[in-house]
Amino acid sequence: MVHCGVECDVLGAAGARRPERETAAAGLRLLSVGSLQAYKGHRVLVQACAQLRDRGVRLHCRILGGGGLAPALRRQIAALGLHAQVELAGAVTESEVAAALAQADVFVLPSIVAPSGQMEGIPVALMEAMAAGLPVVASRLSGIPELIRDGCDGLLVPPGDAEALAQAVLGLADAGERRRLGAAAQQRVRAEFELTANVGQLARLWQAAGEAAA
After folding, report:
1. Could you read off the pLDDT of 20-65 as tens digits, one per residue?
2. Using an 8 Å Cβ cutoff, are 155 and 137 in contact?
3. CATH class of the domain at 8-213
4. Is the pTM of the predicted complex or chain greater than 0.85?
5. Contact 144, 150 (CB under 8 A)
C-alpha cells in the first residue's frame, strides 16, 4: 500500500512559527478544517465545545471550510450560545490554512458515518495538522487509525461521542502533553505520509510492473 502524502517541510515550517504558550489566560485554541458536510462531524464538535464551556474551560474553536451544512451549524451555535467560542470562518486558501495551523493549539476532526453512508478515508487535513506539529483528536473510524495510533501520535474517540471528544480535548489543556503528541504526530507523518517519498515509491512500483510486463 502506498498512502497519499503531504509536503512535510512546508507544513513543518508553518508549525515552527507557533508561539509557545500555556493557554491558561487566553484559553485553548481549537482548529478544524474540512468541508461543511455531515460526515465531517462538525455538529459533534460544536456539542463538545458547549460541554467544555459549561465546565468552565476557556476556548476558541475555528472551523475552516465551506459547504451546505453552514446554516444548520450557525443555528446550532446560536441555540447553544456559543458565538464567543465557535467561529465559522468559511472557505479559505491554502496559505490561510497554514497560518491557522501555526496559531492553533489542538486540531480536531470528529468524523462520523453520515446517514447517506458517506465517510472519511484518511483525511489529508489530519496529515497536514500532524505535519505542522499539532496534537490531533479524531474519530476511530475507517482508515484514520492507519494514520493515528491512539495515545502515541494523536487521540482517537468513538464517532459521534461529544462527551468523549470533550474529554480528549480537555486532556490537551496540558501544554506538555500537547508538545509530546505534536512532536510524535510530526514524526509519524514524516515517516509514513511524506509526499515526495510516497510518490517515489509509487513510481518505482509502476516501473517494476512495466518491466515485468515487457
Report:
1. 666 656 689 999 999 999 999 999 999 999 999 999 999 999 999 9
2. yes
3. alpha beta
4. yes
5. no
DSSP code of residue 83 = T
pLDDT digits (tens, 9 = 90+) for 114-128: 999 999 988 999 999
Residue-range domain boundaries for the chain: 8-213
Per-residue burial over 105-134, b = 16 or more CB atoms within 10 Å of its CB, e = otherwise: bbbbbbbbbeeeeebbebbebbbbbbbbbb
CA distance 186 to 197: 15
In terms of DSSP bridges, do strands 86-90 and 59-64 run parallel, antiparallel, or are they unpaired? Answer: parallel
Give the C-alpha separation, 2 to 22, whole Å. 38
Residue 135 CB contacts under 8 Å (≥ 6 apart), including other chains: 105, 106, 107, 154, 155, 172, 177, 178, 181, 182, 185
Interval 26-38: pLDDT, tens: 689 999 999 999 9
Is residue 45 within 8 A of residue 165, CB to CB? The reply is yes
Q: Which of 114, 132, 151 is nearest to 33 (CA)?
A: 132
